[in-house]
Design goal:
mainly alpha, three-stranded antiparallel β-sheet, elongated
């Protein structure tokens, strides 16, 4: 079974997610955005993440999204943009992993000092 990549838009919250696995729509407060041939779902996702729809509190925002002008470069340019963003995301994730490791090392060092002080 082929699963299409979809963009999920939280109509109340403006949260955007990229889904490429089967899922069940659990609430009516989300909009499923299927892309067309000229628009990569990953490009739409990143565009909306980087240029979020301003949330006006807990209300419906899909009407604002529908009127939003989204630049539509050719597919090859969309692919390049997505690839570059995802490359930067991998770098960020690696730094975040290193930060967690360093925080653990610091905790262990502090515990060793405390143990020696007692």
């Amino acid at each position: 079974m082929q699963i299409n990549t979809l963009v999920i838009f939280g109509d109340h919250t403006c949260v955007v997610k990229l889904i490429d696995v089967p899922f069940a729509q659990g609430a009516d407060g989300i909009k499923i955005l299927e892309s067309v041939d000229s628009l990569l779902p990953e490009y739409l996702y990143w565009y909306l993440k980087i240029n979020p729809i301003g949330s006006g509190g807990y209300k419906r925002h899909f009407s604002t999204l529908k009127t939003t002008k989204i630049p539509l470069p050719p597919l090859d340019v969309q692919k390049e943009i997505v690839a570059e963003i995802e490359s930067h995301q991998k770098t960020i994730q690696e730094y975040e992993r290193r930060i967690v490791e360093e925080e653990e090392r610091i905790k262990k060092a502090i515990y060793r000092v405390w143990d020696k002080a007692e």
